[in-house]
Design goal:
There is one protein chain. By secondary structure, the chain is of the alpha/beta class. The protein has helices at residues 7-20, 60-72, 89-103, 111-115, 138-145, 167-180, 197-206; strands at 40-41, 48-52, 75-78, 124-130, 154-160, 185-186, 190-191. The longest helix has 15 residues, at 89-103. Strands 1, 2, 3, 4, 5, 6 and 7 form a seven-stranded mixed β-sheet that branches. It has a single domain (7-206), classed as Rossmann fold (3-Layer(aba) Sandwich).
Length: 214
């Protein structure tokens, strides 16, 4: 799939990105101190797995992942790139991330990430990411394509971005996950800010994933 970005869409992205990063645009190295060790939480023996990629210093997807784990009793593993996205927001957004999106690239996931997950143990996988260039970061494709999925594997995408109400971003992200996780049962996704816990709870409840308080 080749992506083309019209000048209008690029202008919108620049606006959104500058709005979302107004506070961090002066920060010289958002993401420069990315750990090479994937963060984990929860109990690996749970039947529910939460995996996520998160890059900004706010760790918005990470916050969402940890909240979801608390509500579902899931085991949580962070997806770490083999080659970290070091540099400022502008360096990453208008450099490597843009190039990867335009090339439909598959940046490598660290072996440490894969080593933490025995996918056969999980029939429910929630996969989280920030919107990057109107869709999922390409590394989400790498991760999903690493596994052989069957219809018994239930995948629930969750994502957030500078905008959390853009139908095109939702559609793009869902198509990307569906094509990358061929064979799996990919459910409708959750597209909401990490702070929107009522939307997160409603989504988990609708999908029978909410275990907290039971
Ligand atoms: C490379 C890059 C591209 C982005 N593209 C978009 C976009 O197309 N639409 C959008 O709403 N937000 C976009 N954003 C903003 C992020 O989705 C937003 O800041 C998100 O909250 C970051 O989540 P994180 O803290 O988990 O990394 C982009 C950010 C980056 C770094």
């Amino acid at each position: 799939m080749k992506k083309r970005f019209s000048a209008r869409i690029c202008a919108l992205l620049i606006l959104l990105a500058s709005l979302s990063c107004a506070a961090c645009s002066n920060a010289p190295a958002d993401g420069a101190d990315q750990s090479l060790t994937p963060a984990t939480a929860g109990d690996p023996s749970s039947s529910v797995l939460v995996v996520y990629f998160s890059w900004s210093s706010e760790g918005n997807t990470e916050q969402m992942a940890n909240y979801i784990a608390g509500q579902t009793g899931a085991y949580v593993v962070e997806i770490i790139p083999e080659d970290p996205y070091d540099g400022s927001y502008n360096d990453v957004a208008y450099g490597r991330a843009q190039e990867e999106a335009e090339a439909n690239a598959r940046p490598a996931v660290s072996q440490e990430t894969y080593d933490l997950i025995n996918m056969d143990d999980y029939d429910t996988v929630l996969i989280g990411f920030p919107i990057w260039w109107h869709t999922a970061p390409m590394i989400i494709g790498t991760f999903l394509e690493h596994y052989d999925w069957t219809a018994d594997d239930n995948i629930y995408p969750f994502f957030q971005g500078a905008s959390n109400s853009n139908q095109e971003y939702y559609n793009n992200s869902m198509s990307f996950v569906r094509s990358s996780a061929e064979g799996a049962t990919v459910h409708d996704g959750l597209y909401a800010a990490e702070s929107n816990t009522s939307a997160i709870d409603a989504y988990l409840s609708e999908n029978g994933l909410l275990t907290a308080g039971e």
